[in-house]
């Protein structure tokens, strides 16, 4: 297997200082984490209680009460704790750390003597552990708590949760596996596979890696574990209680052994979490067949099943992928968690192969769907991230009811908000990777990195004007001149990038390797590298196979996808159209949504005032010319409920 | 109330002889009725059994067995029998009549001594009559059997079923009503209301009219009958058995008293059957408030919630209306039965007010959705009638699974095929109406009518080239010159109609009354009236409020809506576009689908071969010019499974 097998850099190695992203980091720290802590403690007014902390208190014997919320409610606290850990890694905060320590203390108290941890089963069905692995998320919750434990240990050096989770993992290892007497099964919701890899990474315990590989390798083997389990429990489901049809194995990607899978199917979050673990295992074990499967599944998502915003999952039925080129904008799902997982998967692929396409997708999802899933004030969230909204349809057409025109305070199933928090809090991990003697820059986010290349300490400082402008500068600090490689991604959206080293043009024509410019030379302290990615507002067309976008265009400028909102263009956004030769002006407007680049130009608008009591009539008039304004997609829905569209008809 | 209150002409007064429609009449007679009889007798190979005849045999004590099929399965036989009656009225057929007599004998045997008739309750829950009126369709099945009884009596003069149904109606009248001890309720699925009006019409029994009015007037009063019934039966439903949420009263239009309703909501078939009865009652009782409600509901459907094909019902959730201008083409429902009911409603409105808009909708639904719901061979049917089909999406996107790309042999819920049969078999009823001294022609279907105007026998013969050409001629026969009025609808789709009386031009400018030309004069034997409706293929635009059609056009020529099929244009129909100034040629092609007018011209096609592994990229090329061909919508899906679209992007 010829791959780069680059390392993730630890969060402590990277410090973000960026005009655009530092705002989001701060928002997470100052607003989102405290807000979500309140949510987990059922302290948000007029909001469905979470019960997350409550459940741990009851399970720990500190409180009387019933279990509340979803069977996987524990994972919300785990993801919050993981986000806290990332934040502490870059911005120590004694008060926050104490809060986390107390939460960890509570978690550890809720752990059972044998290592088992799950408040649902401990409180509600203590003798039913591992009897409905398909539905009941025990391994999923375990995985999230392991991720939190690893992150917290890495951030603080504190082992309490890590030790507890090792104990849990050791216990799980006695329950699952190929040996007689163990359950030859695997999770109903994949997650622990990637978590066990992280646990292996910090502990060096190969049993964790082997257990992860077992779950991945066993998945989809015949006869089906889930069908046998379903039969054994009498054909009922956790969700309906009554009889349920035979499990749809595609839903949780257990329809085939993973190495035989080529199409992304089923529940999108389960899928990308699994692909992430597959990529981890391919990298760590050098398993070519696993890498091949990862590449096929990557291609199927990124080349056939991904929205322009970086969203995935075309249908709310099962929160799932549907099939190639089926990307409806109005009935879309595009769950926030799914794009978080897509970034995980893309980054694992990037660790193996420095190909631009992986980082392009990370950037696309980050700058559009991910930050768009939260209000500017950090206190409201989308679960579903549509590309077209008609608020009345969301209310009155049941097939579009899952599409909310405004972000919500919290959710009964609130997986997305803490997932978003842990991703943004760990953003520093995604900017760079380090191969033995190469430092790759994947994202253009102002930051500093300290890395070791061929035993030499390197300090690289990046300043960036993205996403508003394409100027990026790097300054290198190192003790003595040294030969090594620096590599930069040239984004897929930029056709005419320029690079200068110490003020001298460095031609890029024919120089790109998989979309990266790699400069391997003797570098000196103080070397300056300037990149320029000229940005224009471009009309983007979708592959004609995407029926939903036929005859339409979207606007993209740099990494940002734009959209048209009622707040700027009046209602009936669908009556707007763009000219194929539209001249679009981009300008920064400090008064709009906290300051953003708006795109304006001449478009067309059907004159609805010329229509009265008719539904259909012969085409007569041209639409009227009209001034149109687009805003970045990630800012939509911050000015009340209204119509929105990413794709508009083109004339 | 100033209305025309025109009479329906009886089927015996009209004989259709039409190049286009006689084919369908014959198909119903020779193929559809025998085919459906086989279906009702469970004799179709490889098809889910109907159980309809079986259930009557069991209920009649002629056979041992269980009840099979839906709780409303009886209605399939009733609708088939009604269709047979209409066929016998115009085309006597001793063998068919004997078959019907035997079926009627079976039905009568299944009737209970007190008049009750319902095979589900008789076989399965004999002591549960009238305990779940919301779900269990007892009154619905009763209504359909009454309609069959009336039609059979009118066609053959035989009273066996009519008497049985009068007995049933008498019994129902003892069960429902305002008096103490009766149920103050109304049907879960409206139907009996319009049937009781028919029963009143042939028997003169005013109790039937009063019972119909009771059901209509009681509906939606507070407290809600259905909520009380649901509480009394312990909050369960017939469908789920388990606990169900409180009934959604909009679903069956019992959310408001009918006179306060202004929006068409809920299950579309229930709605239009109810509106039909409301119009009947408004006409027969002169109830202005009921007429006002009918007009509002008509406007809401025909001006805000109707597809260009005459389909209604925008969502498969509850087979229901959604709201104004929400007319998605891909996730559409547009059930065949709903358009059948829409024609009923439109015709009742037309009986009160000779306004073109009613007949325009009847024509639109008939020529497009109705005949399009059946294969050319009469043996396969659509339940859902989409305006856009992508077979792979129907298979793989759960939100489009209800949209079938090919017509089906039969259905578990097989309401549509016999509904279609009874409508086409009674087509003669919809062509003309007679006011005291005015004979209205609403549809241009070759036929003869014998009517009495002011005590004078009039015979009018119509020949028509529709829908292929707009030439229509009328010849009048009468014993002596006489002053009366003849009226013709000038279709909404024709802007430049011409009329000649005995070869002399009759100017139409400023002469139309609500879209009708009315010539009131002394008519003579042999008078000839020629109408010409020039037809061109027109690009049709939808009201800009219909978001789903934004930036798109459809093609219509005369009453026919056209569509683009994969069989003519290759796959990826969505990659086609039309020019705003497209020159479209219409020509009759005898080789296509049994002979039809195809429409051809130059369009555009996105060059999919220029796309490979990309989902999105800057717009570059113009699409390629391409020869396109459209066929009438009603002929789609007769050449195997493939993509289809009515609306295409316009450049």
UniProtKB/TrEMBL annotation, chains A, B:
Residue ranges occupied by any Non-reducing end beta-L-arabinofuranosidase-like GH127 catalytic domain in the UniProt entry: 13-428
Non-reducing end beta-L-arabinofuranosidase-like GH127 C-terminal domain span: 538-649
A Pfam match: Beta-AFase-like_GH127_cat
Keyword tags: Hydrolase
Keyword Transferase attributed: no
InterPro entries linked to this entry: 6-hairpin_glycosidase_sf, Beta-AFase-like, Beta-AFase-like_GH127_C, Beta-AFase-like_GH127_cat, Beta-AFase-like_GH127_middle
SUPFAM superfamilies, per the entry: Six-hairpin glycosidases (SSF48208)
A molecular function GO annotation: hydrolase activity
Domain Non-reducing end beta-L-arabinofuranosidase-like GH127 middle per the UniProt entry, residue ranges: 438-535
UniProt key word Hydrolase: yes
Annotated protein name in UniProt: Glycoside hydrolase family 127 protein
Organism encoding this protein: Alicyclobacillus fodiniaquatilis
UniProt lineage: Bacteria, Bacillati, Bacillota, Bacilli, Bacillales
């Amino acid at each position: 297997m010829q791959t780069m097998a680059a390392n993730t850099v630890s969060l402590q190695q990277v410090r973000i200082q960026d005009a655009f992203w530092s705002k989001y980091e701060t928002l997470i720290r100052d607003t989102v984490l405290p807000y979500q802590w309140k949510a987990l403690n059922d302290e948000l007014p007029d909001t469905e209680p979470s019960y997350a902390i409550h459940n741990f208190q009851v399970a720990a014997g500190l409180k009387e009460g019933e279990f509340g919320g979803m069977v996987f409610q524990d994972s919300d606290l785990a993801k919050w704790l993981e986000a806290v850990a990332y934040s502490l890694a870059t911005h120590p905060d004694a008060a926050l750390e104490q809060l986390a320590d107390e939460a960890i203390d509570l978690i550890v108290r809720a752990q059972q003597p044998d290592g088992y941890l799950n408040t649902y089963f401990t409180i509600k069905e203590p003798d039913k552990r591992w009897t409905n692995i398909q539905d009941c998320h025990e391994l999923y919750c375990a995985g999230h708590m392991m991720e939190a434990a690893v992150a917290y240990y890495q951030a603080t050096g504190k082992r309490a949760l890590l030790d507890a989770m090792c104990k849990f993992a050791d216990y799980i290892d006695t329950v699952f596996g190929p040996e007689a007497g163990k359950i030859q099964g695997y999770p109903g919701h994949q997650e622990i596979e990637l978590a066990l890899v992280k646990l292996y990474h910090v502990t060096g315990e190969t049993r964790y890696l082997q257990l992860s590989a077992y779950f991945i390798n066993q998945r989809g083997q015949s006869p089906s574990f889930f069908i046998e389990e379903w039969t054994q429990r009498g054909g009922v489901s956790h969700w309906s209680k009554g009889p349920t049809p035979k499990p749809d194995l595609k839903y949780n990607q257990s329809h085939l052994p993973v190495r035989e899978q080529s199409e992304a199917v089923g529940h999108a979050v389960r899928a990308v979490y699994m692909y992430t673990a597959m990529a981890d295992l391919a990298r760590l074990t050098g398993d070519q067949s696993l890498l091949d499967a990862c590449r096929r599944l990557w291609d199927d998502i990124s080349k056939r099943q991904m929205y322009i915003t970086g969203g995935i999952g075309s249908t709310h039925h099962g929160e799932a992928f549907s099939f190639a080129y089926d990307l409806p904008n109005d009935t879309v799902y595009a769950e926030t968690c799914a794009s978080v997982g897509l970034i995980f998967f893309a980054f694992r692929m990037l660790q193996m192969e420095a190909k631009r396409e992986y980082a392009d997708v990370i950037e696309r999802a980050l700058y559009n769907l991910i930050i768009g899933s939260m209000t500017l004030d950090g206190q409201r969230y989308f679960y579903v991230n549509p590309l077209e909204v008609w608020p009345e349809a969301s209310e009155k057409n049941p097939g579009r009811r899952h599409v909310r025109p405004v972000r919500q305070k919290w959710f009964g199933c609130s997986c997305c908000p803490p997932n978003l928090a842990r991703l943004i809090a760990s953003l520093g991990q995604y900017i760079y990777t380090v191969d033995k003697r190469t430092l790759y820059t994947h994202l253009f986010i102002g930051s500093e990195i300290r890395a070791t290349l061929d035993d030499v300490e390197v300090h690289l400082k990046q300043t960036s004007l993205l996403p508003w402008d394409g100027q990026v500068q790097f300054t290198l600090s190192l003790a003595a001149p040294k030969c090594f490689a620096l590599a930069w991604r040239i984004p897929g959206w930029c056709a005419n990038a320029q690079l200068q080293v110490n003020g001298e043009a460095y031609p890029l024509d024919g120089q790109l390797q998989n979309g990266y410019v790699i400069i391997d030379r003797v570098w000196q302290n103080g070397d300056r590298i300037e990149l320029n990615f000229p940005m224009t507002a471009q009309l983007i067309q979708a592959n004609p196979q995407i029926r939903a976008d036929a005859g339409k265009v979207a606007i993209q400028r740099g990494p940002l996808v734009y959209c048209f909102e009622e707040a700027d263009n009046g209602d009936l956004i669908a009556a707007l159209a763009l000219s194929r030769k539209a001249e679009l002006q981009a300008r920064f407007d400090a008064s709009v949504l906290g300051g953003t680049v708006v795109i304006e130009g001449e478009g067309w608008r059907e004159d609805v005032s010329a229509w009265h009591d008719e539904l259909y009539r012969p085409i007569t008039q041209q639409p009227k010319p009209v001034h149109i304004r687009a805003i970045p997609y990630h800012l939509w829905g911050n000015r009340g409920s209204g119509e929105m569209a990413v794709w508009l008809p083109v004339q």
